[in-house]
Amino acid sequence: xxxxxxxxxxxxxxxxxxxxxxxxxxxxxxxxxxxxxxxxxxxxxxxxxxxxxxxxxxxxxxxxxxxxxxxxxxxxxxxxxxxxxxxxxxxxxxxxxxxxxxxxxxxxxxxxxxxxxxxxxxxxxxxxxxxxxxxxxxxxxxxxxxxxxxxxxxxxxxxxxxxxxxxxxxxxxxxxxxxxxxxxxxxxxxxxxxxxxxxxxxxxxxxxxxxxxxxxxxxxxxxxxxxxxxxxxxxxxxxxxxxxxxxxxxxxxxxxxxxxxxxxxxxxxxxxxxxxxxxxxxxxxxxxxxxxxxxxxxxxxxxxxxxxxxxxxxxxxxxxxxxxxxxxxxxxxxxxxxxxxxxxxxxxxxxxxxxxxxxxxxxxxxxxxxxxxxxxxxxxxxxxxxxxxxxxxxxxxxxxxxxxxxxxxxxxxxxxxxxxxxxxxxxxxxxxxxxxxxxxxxxxxxxxxxxxxxxxxxxxxxxxxxxxxxxxxxxxxxxxxxxxxxxxxxxxxxxxxxxxxxxxxxxxxxxxxxxxxxxxxxxxxxxxxxxxxxxxxxxxxxxxxxxxxxxxxxxxxxxxxxxxxxxxxxxxxxxxxxxxxxxxxxxxxxxxxxxxxxxxxxxxxxxxxxxxxxxxxxxxxxxxxxxxxxxxxxxxxxxxxxxxxxxx
Length: 648
Ligand SMILES: Cc1cc2nc3c(=O)[nH]c(=O)nc-3n(C[C@H](O)[C@H](O)[C@H](O)COP(=O)(O)O)c2cc1C
Hints:
By secondary structure, the protein is an alpha/beta fold. It folds into 3 domains: 6-378, Aldolase class I (TIM Barrel, Alpha-Beta Barrel), CATH 3.20.20.70; 390-484 and 607-646, Rossmann fold; 497-603, FAD/NAD(P)-binding domain. The strands form 7 sheets. Strands 3-4-6-10-11-12-13-14 form an 8-stranded parallel beta barrel, surrounded by 7 helices. It has a 5-stranded parallel beta sheet with strand order 17-16-15-18-29, covered by helices on one side. Strands 20-27-21-22-23 form a 5-stranded parallel beta sheet. Helix 4 runs parallel beside helix 6 (201-219) and helix 14 (398-409) packs parallel to helix 21 (634-646). The radius of gyration is 26 Å and the shape is globular. The mean pLDDT is 95. Flavin mononucleotide binds next to strand 3, strand 4 and helix 13.
C-alpha cells in the first residue's frame, strides 16, 4: 500500500538491528518498582502498550547503574537481587513480542540523586555525588566523585550492559543529557574539576567516552548504542549548541545513534519537555545542526505529535528518527495509525503535564486523554458486553463523548444527546485559544470515534426524565457538566463582561484593556492568551495565589507566562464591575480600581445539580460522571466516562 507518510514508516538498520519504522518511544518511567529495585508487572504492561501500538523502539526508562552513588532512579539490574534479571527479561520480552525493539536507558543522576522521590526530605539523608564539590540550590551537599568511584561507575555501566543484553534488550540508550551525571561532567556549569575530567572540552567528555567504551565492551559489536544528549543546555554558564556540536563529534566514534534532546531537568524543564506555550518541535533545530556535523543517525524530539511535521523532519533530512514521549501516552497506537494512513484518528497529547505531575504527587501515572495509562494491566482490549443494552448519554462534553464511544465499542446501542448545537462541552471554549487548540481538537477526535462506532448523536436535544422514559433505555450516563459561576455582583452582568466559557463566541467584544476576574486555571490561561494577543491585561484574584489547583508541572510554566503578559492583583476582592474596570478591596481594606474597559468573568464552575437531580432516578442503571458529579478535570471526566461505560 502507498503510505501517506513514507519517511516515518521507513525501516532503519543500525548495526545488526532493523527498526520497523522511524517512530520511537522516548524513555518514560513506569511507576511499579519494587523496594529492592526490580521492575514490576504494571510497568511491563505500561511499556508493552506502546510496543503493541507500533513504535519502532520502546525505551525502558532510567535503569540505575551504580546504586552506591545514585538513588534517584528507582530500578536497577543487579545480580545480587534475586528477581532483577527475570523482571527485566519479562519487560524486554513483552516489548519484543510485538515486533518492537526493546531498548534500555542507563542512567546515573549524580548530584541530583533523589530528584524523583515523592518524599523530598529523604534526599537529605542520601549521598549526592557529582563532578565537583558543591551545595545545591536546595541546600543538599554534593561531593566530588573520586577517581576510584569514577572507575567503579564506569565498570558498573559495563556490567549492567551485559545484564541488559542477557535480558533481551537489543539497544541501549546512555543518558548523557538533561542534567544527569554524564551531562554534569560535560557541562562547564557543573564541572569545575581540575583533573583530567574537567576544564577542556576533551576532559569534560572523558567520562562520557569511558562509559561508552565500557558499554561497548559489555555488549560487543553490532549492538546499537544510542547516546542521549542535550543539544544545548540553555542555561547561563552551561554549554550552547556550538559546544553541543563539538560534544556530538567527540562521542560519535563510540555511538550508533545520537539522540538530541535539550536543556536540563532541573533548570529548563519546559524546554526539555516543551509545554503547551511553546511550538511543537521547538528543539528540532538542535538535531538539525548536529546532523550536519556527524554521520551516524540522529534522533530528535520535544512536543512532536503531528505526522505531517514529523514526516517533514525526516524527509528534509533534519533528523533520521523522531522520538515521542507524551504523544505516545495520549495515543500509544499513533505509529500504527500513521502506518495505516489513519492519522485523523490520532488522539493528540494536550501537553497538560498530568502524566508527570501525577508521578510527583502520587507516584502513579495518568494521562488526561487516555484512561488506560498507568492502568494498562486492566486491559486495552474492550470486550463486547454479554447482553446488548440501550444506553443514553446525556451531555457531549469529554466525559460524555468518551462514555458513549466506549459503550458503543462494547456493542451497546448508544444515543448521545447534547443540548447545544455542537459537541465538546467545556472544550468548545478552548477553540479561541491557540495554545489550547488540542483540547478543542480532542472533542472532535472523540466525536469521530463516536460516529465510527455508530453512536446516534442528537444535537439540540435536552434530556428530561420524560425523554429517558420515552426512549426506554437500560442505562443512563449523566454527563451534563457544570455551569459558570456568575455571582450577583453589581455590574457583573453588564455589556462589558464576557464569561470565559463564552469567549470563543464573543471575543470581538473584548477591548484592548481587559481585567480578568478570577485567577483559577481558566482565568490565568485566558489572561495569558489575551496578553499574547497584545492586550493590556490585569488579573484580579481574591486568594493569595493563582491557580493553586493546577498541577505541579504545568503551574510553574504557566506562572512564567503570566509574568510575561499579565499584571496580577492577588488578595483583591472584587466589589463592583464598572465601565472602566473592577472596583476592588485590597487586604488592608483600601478600595482600588483595577483598570480595563472589558472584563472576563472566570470565577469557576458549579455542577449542574438541577439536571442531575431531575435525572438520577430515570433508569435502572444511572452513572453520574465528570463535572456533573464534581467539578474536576478533563482527566477525571474521561476516566469516569470510560468506567461508567464499562460498568454497564
Ligand atoms: C511521563 C514522563 C516520564 C519521563 N521519564 C523520563 C525518564 O525516565 N528518562 C528520560 O531520559 N526522560 C524521561 N522523560 C522525558 C522524555 O523522554 C522526553 O525527553 C520529553 O518528554 C520530551 O518529549 P515529548 O515532548 O515527546 O514528551 C519523561 C517524560 C515524561 C512525559
